[in-house]
Sequence to fold (92 residues):
Amino acid sequence: MNLLIEILGWVGSVAVIAAYGLNSYQKIKSDSLMFQLLNLTGATFLIINSIYKEAYPFTFINTVWLIIAMVAMVGIIQRRGQNKDQTKNPEP
Fold:
């Protein structure tokens, strides 16, 4: 079990760093689902790792990171739905 938790921690770290790096080098945008999915996945894995290791300040910051990613993803999905509706029913 310890090895699995350690692997999740490392994968989470790589996901968050990948999101930041790809965004910094303008390979993905911060309003893309990929950026938010990397942050969401990374935060989730880091939360699992930090709870297991009883590193609660780290758990807190990653929980906030997860909530931010979830809210952003909902907004992105809603905007995509609105854009689809506008292209189907353009205003005169």
User: Anything to note?
Assistant: The chain is about 85% helix and 0% strand. The chain has a mean pLDDT of 93. Residues 28 and 63 are 23 Å apart (CA to CA). Helices lie at 2-24, 33-52, 56-88.
